[in-house]
Amino acid sequence: MKVTNLPSIILFASIVFFSCGSSKVATSSDPYEQALAEQGMGATLWFQTSAEMRAAYYQAYQYGRMILEKKLALQNYDNPAIVFDIDETLLDNSPYQAWLIHNGRTYSSSTWKDWTDQARAEALPGALEFVAFVRSKGIDVFYISNRKTTEQKSTMENLKELGFPQVTDEHVLLRSASSDKTERRKRVQDSHEILLYVGDNLTDFNQVFDARGADYGKGLVDQYRQELLNSFVMLPNPMYGEWERAVLRNETGLSSQEQAARRKAALKE
């Protein structure tokens, strides 16, 4: 199968990003950063082009619907709610990942905010339909994201423009300090019964998954297997996430060269 034209999709996404207002267009001069960025090409291409990605999102949201229907058939709930993550759960930020690859850059808070300020991420497959189903059952929707509170306005604008419901300051809970979502989840629990969590990272369900040991957290998944099956919908995101920190052994401040070396060392033949 001929695949030599696939990277042009990454280029196209980058051009669209530039044309819609990004001010950070300089390509990195660090060859190690460029190489590290390019390692994300396969994952980003999978996310943007594969039919498998689309099927996986549809399947995950259908699973969420099945869980909800089962729970609602068994009992009545006082003030039921569902908690959604936003990025790579409801909104597609792969154009930002494409921009990083095309420019040989790795993530930075400034270029990320350039992207979110544009408020033009598209809805992911099945997301709007599932949220509409949730609301049709009288279930409240909360959005808990580790976007910063400085991104509140653009995030709400993006969600509203796409038709997501209950997009208010009370329902969109972004990060003010800690990336730990426990306290924000508790704020919802104080007034609602949370039936389901939806996200692309296991920490969208429980902060215990932040502490991943030598097995990359797989033992924790086995330990919490039943809770995950009953109360969490997992969306696929091979582009970034907590799994990357586990590969780096939770060390921060590593150079691009050191990060690339640790990634390679983690591979098994």
TrEMBL record:
Keyword set includes Signal: yes
Highest taxon in the source lineage: Bacteria
UniProt KW RNA-binding keyword: no
This protein's UniProt keywords: Lipoprotein, Signal
Signal sequence annotation: 1-28
One Gene Ontology cellular component annotation held by this UniProt entry: cell outer membrane
Listed name of the protein: 5'-nucleotidase, lipoprotein e(P4) family
Gene source species: Fulvivirga sedimenti
